[in-house]
Amino acid sequence: MNRNDSLVRAVRLLDPADRYIDTGADRAQSMLHTILAAEPATPTRRRPATVTTGSAEQRGPVLRGRRLALLGGVATVVAAALVVTPALTGGDKAFATWTAAPTGMSAQQRDDAAGSCRAQMSDGGGADDATSLASASVAIAEARGVWTTVLLAGDDGFAALCITDQSGPLFSDRMIGSVGIADVATPGPRDVVGTDLGVGTIGSDISLIAGLAGTEVVGVTYASRAHGTVTATVSYGHFALWFPGDELMWASAGVDVDVTFTDGTSRTVRLSL
Question: Is a pLDDT exceeding 90 seen at residue 23?
Fold first, then answer.
């Protein structure tokens, strides 16, 4: 079984609606024909958007159906628009600095990370969403070692999510994420709804869980087999967490998270796409 076979099987899990294709090589064009011929088995919810200066590759259902982009002969499938740029050296390739619990960012770091997310999305998978990206506000801004996670939220459910390695050489940030409007219901006060769920690759695999949180939700955690308890940032009606590895490769079938509420109680909720 070669890489193309794996990609075709992954693409079958994605909704073909609202799909954007960007081809940058003859190989990508050939792969595009194969992808379009595949018949998806289950629906997705959001346009995947991934931008990276490393070797990016979708290895499982990520996000709730968005766009597929091919550039330079590398194929990636995610829940928003995806862009892959040439690999550069440097950076936190082994996720050595990653932490299970996020830390905050200074106002300057927050502004810089948000600006980087807007710029990379506008130049890549989110090119069609330039107006929404410009007006979206920062809902989540966290750091896990040298990695930053930014979620920009706008009108009518628009969101852009960027997970970026800030440690590489100048202008070489590696990023993976999603952009667009997720086709999900507004959560109730004590509900959480998944919008981004699965595995993507930035040189190495990462597992991602993100979504919408009700007004009474103050905490979301995931019990990882490899990393223990991974804590999400919950802010402005959104939550997001990620960790190294491919643990969530087939997570669209369902993932359990522990949710904590304003009254101090908690319960386990199963997220699925």
Answer: no
> 55 in helix, strand or coil?
coil
- As beta bridge partners, residue 247 has none
Average pLDDT over residues 101-121: 94
- Would 74 be classed as within a structural domain? no
User: Domain range holding 165?
Assistant: 93-271
How many C-beta atoms surround the C-beta of residue 126 within 10 A? Answer: 32
* Paired tokens of 18: 């609202």
Within-domain flag for 64: no
Higher pLDDT, 111 or 273: 111
Q: Is the pTM of this model over 0.85?
A: no
Q: How confident is the model at residue 161 (pLDDT cuts 50, 70, 90)?
A: very high
Quick one: which of 176, 207, 202 has its CA closest to 50? Answer: 176
The SS3 of residue 191 is coil
Answer yes or no: is 98 within a domain.
yes
| Number of domains observed in the structure of the chain | 1
Residue spans of alpha helices (H) in the chain: 3-11, 26-37, 107-123, 130-135
3 state DSSP class of 259: strand
